[in-house]
Amino acid sequence: MASKRTDLFIKQLASKGIPAKAATDPDWDKYSLTYNLRLPVAPAAVVVPDNIQHVCDAVIGADHHGFKVQPRSGGHSYASYGSGGMNGAVVVVDLRNFQDIDFVSEDVVRVGSGVRLGNLARSIYNQAKRALAHGTCAGVGIGGHFTHGGYGLSSRAWGLAMDQIVALDVVTADGQCLHVDKFRHPYLYYAMRGAGDSFGIVVNFYLQTQPAPESVINWYIKINDVTKSVESAINAFQHIQQFVHDASSVDRQLGFNVSLASGYFAIGGTYQGSRARFEDVIVPALLNNIPEEPTVEIQQVDWLTSLKLLNQGQDLDVSSPYEEHSNFFAKSVVVPEPGYTKASLEKFFMYLFDEGARAPVPYFILIDLYGGADSQVSTKTLDFSAFAHRDALWVAQLYGYVGNDEKFPAEGLEFITKLAESMTTHLPKYGAYENYTDPSLTREQAHELYHGEKLCNRLKDLKKKLDPGNVFANPQSI
Fold it and tell me: What is the DSSP string of 123-150?
């Protein structure tokens, strides 16, 4: 039945000159292979539109033939939702051909939804010496990253990636293309900034850029000695947590994360202020109550070099076709202000230093600083966009992985799950971050952790108005 429906849909697209791929095509694997190899999913078809009308017609046709629809920008969905998330039930609209990057004013850039972050950063810098806050992995596509949050080390200065969206061109469930902003179709504009996968397909982003800093301090401090005991690790993290609230040392120009493993404790990030202030004020305050001997590395570089260093030293230019893949399972923990309790840190470090020392899979833990003194992430409210975690101090990612040709073991899933549980057991409140999509969550659990009850109810009401037929759907969508 599904195969016949797919054939009819493909024929309909062909009659309109719309490129598409199905399982019978010899190059199907190039269009259907998921980024996360642990979670293979076979969509019903992959549409590869050349223009906006193709996207509109694909949405109408998919709905007519009984398929759900999901967009794919870069395809990095942790849960393979960029491939639909459900075998044979979803038509994927692959936006790889939407690559335009053009300034429509001195500071607003229009960006096609197939653009990847590295190409975006280099293009706007080369065109106008402008910059945006976004993630560090150059290969990530703009689509899901910007519509579900989008954290970067400059986010404390400029906001999340979504905060820079001033308008969108969106294809809706009925096949229209609407230009949306805070004045035109404001409800859709609101929903797309936080829950875009449930409401439409962005074909163009209009983004408020910033003047690129002339120089950036990229820094890294390793204090592995604090992992010799649970107590010293707790003391170090509590001091860091106290430090980020100290407005005499910390301002919005400072962004960083804490990187952890059993036997490993490091802090690293960027600073957009002067090197003198960083070395004379920030570093001493950061290390003041940490007696263990640190290793400190400081580089002052230009904007693009800073981004390259954050991209693990790899070039920002990302070629097509994109052929990177990984084999992994990840969970996230959003920790609201005022941060981790001592009891939560004790439970977490006890598990990390015990079970983490003999982990069944390689892993890493990154704890990004969202809040703290002068953070511009925290200045927005739930009325600004459909993002529930404006009160976040930290957002942790716990990521286990194996080789691309290996089977991810059940013990690895259990380890990452219990690692996250050790972090949340003694937290009075916590959430999860949708861009680190966790496929182990039920739809109800995902809604609660990603959005919270108040926002989720608001989004459900908007879904009834904007997509009553549930055209845009995946296993965790609204």
Answer: HHHHHHSEE----S-TTSBHHHHHHS--
Beta bridge partners of 258: 267, 367
On the 0-12 / 13-18 / 19+ scale of CB atoms within 10 A, 272 is: buried
Nearest to 419 by CA among 378, 376, 360, 476: 360
User: What was the pLDDT predicted at 291?
Assistant: 87
Q: The tokens of 46 are what?
A: 């992959």
In 3D space, the residue among 145, 318, 157, 287 whose CA is nearest the CA of residue 219 turns out to be 287
- Give the CB-side neighbour count of residue 186, counting CA atoms within 13 A: 4
pLDDT of 439 strictly over 50: yes
**pLDDT per residue as tens digits for the range 59-93:** 999 999 999 999 999 999 999 999 999 999 999 99
DSSP assignment string, 63-84: HHTT-EEEEESS---TTSGGGT
The secondary element (H helix, E strand) that includes residue 368 is strand 363-369
Q: How many other C-beta atoms can be found within 10 angstroms of the C-beta atom of residue 48?
A: 20
As a whole number of angstroms, the distance between CA 81 and CA 22 comes to 17
| pLDDT confidence bin for 3, thresholds 50/70/90 | confident
Query: In what helix (H) or strand (E) does residue 346 lie, and over which residues does it extend?
Result: helix 342-354
Euclidean distance between CA atoms 72 and 137, whole angstroms: 17
Spatial distance between the Cα atoms of 50 and 56, rounded to a whole number of angstroms: 11
Residue 52 to residue 169: CA distance in whole angstroms: 9
Total Cβ atoms within 10 A of residue 47: 28
Structure tokens at 318: 């990302």
Surface-to-core class of residue 337, CB atoms within 10 Å of its CB (0-12 exposed, 13-18 middle, 19+ buried): middle
- Number of CB atoms found within 10 A of residue 453's CB: 10
Amino acid at 337: E
Global pTM value = 0.97
Pairing of strands 45-47, 90-94: parallel
User: What is each CA distance from 1 to 8, 44, 65, 83, in whole angstroms?
Assistant: 11, 11, 11, 20
Which run of H or of E encompasses 236?
A: helix 230-243
Contact 396, 333 (CB under 8 A): yes
Neighbouring CB atoms inside 10 A of 11's CB total: 10
pLDDT at 292: 85
The answer to whether 111 and 204 have CB atoms below 8 angstroms apart is yes
